[in-house]
Amino acid sequence: MTERLEDIANKMVAEGKGILAADESTGTIKKRFDTISLTSTEESRRDYREMLFRADAMKDYISGVILFDETLRQAARDGTPFSKIIQDAGAVPGIKVDQGAKDMALSPGEKVTEGLTGLRGRLKEYYELGARFAKWRAVITIDGPLPSWNCVKANAHALARYAALCQENGILPIVEPEVLMDGERAKHDIDRCYEVTEWTLKTVFTELYDANVMLEGMILKPNMIVPGDHSGQKASVEEVAEKTLRCLKSCVPPAVPGIAFLSGGQSDEQATAHLSAMNAMGQLPWKLTYSYGRALQTAALNAWGGKMENEAAGQRAFNHRARMNSLAATGRWSETEEKKAA
Ligand code: 5MM
Questions:
Q1: Which residues contact 79 (CB under 8 A, 6 or more apart)?
Q2: Residue nearest to ligand 1 atom 20, measured at CA
Q3: Is the CB of 32 within 6 Å of ligand 1?
């Protein structure tokens, strides 16, 4: 029997659990492996993902894993499909279905995410392979007068068309409109991030409504409200938490069961501290949790270093980060917890 989208959503934002974004495309995982001087091959990518998916954290703190096409089709060294390892840990396997943010025609410096052509057929195949949710990431760049309405509107429209196709095929859509905080062009202050994120989210929810997307059967994956990396501005944890919540409350209907943040280039500890502060601020209309890539993986990648003999060390680092974020998802993380465990 097909699972209800609402049930998949509630499982993915279950108390104290969050999502592991392990959907790096071949180009991105190569960049990550370059930092530990490891050659990216099908085998090294498999070994790295196996180290993560067999860690204890999977059972306790991870509700879903976003995979790249290659990984959903891959098996562990003993032949067990990764999708089965994830399911056996009690988590939901998911799949990144966008085909990347590409230069937008006649909109210099902006990107539009592609991948709608043939998506219905791909979703049907991914369902057969075990995926029960999908992810599509739109990228919005702030730079002087950018983003343009053309960029915000086109990306929001594509997200809505993707989400509708997912729901038609029994797959829960994670809708990810990312207003970038990293990169050399990110010189904007926190209030500009607020303004652009608000504009983007309001446009996305209008497009989702027009596309008949059922809000109860989706998860939003937004950025937090933070200053750009190259702004020279520092915001306190309280300011980030307060502005992010204010922005989300003005844009995200309570029918949405959960919001799972991206980390976007924040340090591991910042991403955890911000999430915890928001959850400690009292009753919210939706669950607030993590769908981190870098902020869940960087410490594990470094501890593993591409060596079989470091597998346990990599898993310890991943277990620790996942536990800290689980505490944050219920507003109970503290620096004392962080240091105690380290
Ligand atoms: C894990 O990184 C994801 C895939 O990136 P590419 O498509 O560029 O290979 C990315 O979509 C990720 O799911 C989100 O951006 C969140 O990751 P962070 O690292 O920002 O938490």
A1: none
A2: 264
A3: no
How, if at all, do strands 133-140 and 111-113 pair? unpaired
Catalytic residue among 176, 178, 207, 287: 176
Is 114 annotated as catalytic? no
Q: Which atom of ligand 1 is nearest to the CA of 297?
A: 19
In whole angstroms, what is the distance from residue 185 CA to residue 175 CA?
A: 24
DSSP symbol at 266: -
Query: What are the boundaries of each domain within the chain?
Result: 5-339
176 is catalytic: yes
Q: Which of 259, 294, 296 to mutate to test the pocket of ligand 1 (most atoms within 8 A of CB)?
A: 294
Q: What is the pLDDT along the chain (342 residues), one digit of tens a residue?
A: 579 999 999 999 999 999 999 999 999 999 999 999 999 999 999 999 999 999 999 999 999 999 999 999 999 999 999 999 999 999 999 999 999 999 999 999 999 999 999 999 999 999 999 999 999 999 999 999 999 999 999 999 999 999 999 999 999 999 999 999 988 899 999 999 999 999 999 999 999 999 999 999 999 999 999 999 999 999 999 999 999 999 999 999 999 999 999 999 999 999 999 999 999 998 999 999 999 999 999 999 999 999 999 999 999 999 999 999 999 999 999 999 998 766
Alpha helices in 211-330 (DSSP H): 237-251, 268-279, 294-304, 311-328
5-339 has which CATH code?
Answer: 3.20.20.70
